[in-house]
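Table S2 (text version). Query chain:
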Amino acid sequence: MRTPNGSDTVEILAFGVQADERPLIERAFAPHHDIRCVDVFLTEDTAPIAAGHEAISTSVNASLDAGVLRILAAGGTRMIAQRSTGFNNIDLEVAERLGLTVARVSSYSPYSVAEFAWTLAMAVNRRIVRAGNRTRDFDFRLDGLMGRDLRGRTVGVLGTGKIGEAFTRIGHGFGMRLLGWDVAENPACVELGMEYVDKERLLAESDLVSLHVPLLPATRHLIDAAALRAMKDDAILVNSSRGGLVDTEALVAELRKGRFTGVGLDVYEAEAGLFFLDKSLHAVEDDTLARLVTFPNVVVTSHQAYYTEDAVTQIVDTTLHNVLDYLAGRRSENVLVPAAPVS
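Corresponding structure-token output:
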């Protein structure tokens, strides 16, 4: 294979590789190109590691701002393959000016995230974490562990794309009333009985609210103080999409008032530099997160909703094909910034 720079092969550098991911990545790339996996995340401090690598792969928590992109470009990087659907961490305008090709994973198993969102909902509804902690101490009381049946209650789904649809199908299986909010109706959700309403009505009537919209300037803090006040006092809120969708400080303020049956968060708006890392031996510097995890009705997980063997395999395979497409001069729907013309 001849690459755009005239070479026959390249070594791809993959940043932020988890231990479970490494064998999947190495096995996928082995027949095609060398792959070097490192567990450090891409930041301005670690970007120089990429020097000499024409193509790199990054994780969702990588920092790809203007400063990092300039370091990558100066070191010879020409292609960035992000192993995620979201790309709000990448300055695409700067990447284009620097002549960098940027690609993402347009889609992967929607069931991984949808099923995990329901896992969070059920965990806070049935007090699973508290119950598990008690039984480890041989405390088998049921005090404080009472949950609610979901059948017949109302679930509000903000964002009804592929993941939102998969989430809705599970809610339909529970026998719940379905409310939806999106820029366009999903016919599959309508067929399941979903009623599309405005956001205010959805928040006011839902017993469970789950977020499945992308993080864009228009959706940042979609769940702000006003939205939280509009929700039922005994509602459940689940966010398995992007942390920036929720105003965390406003959420903490409402939780301090004793509101909400439960909150399940797989994402956090200031998760970069925290999630995917072991911080157990360090002082907690994020006061908001420190306060959030103290509430007994809150479960916070470390951006793991996508983390199934099925989904990660699809992500890795798509990432491989994004790199191969770049090296062959092809362009797919996954490309966010196209390759600069080869002189």
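Notes on Table S2: Confidence is low (pLDDT under 50) at residues 1-7. The chain has two domains: 11-108+309-337, 110-300.
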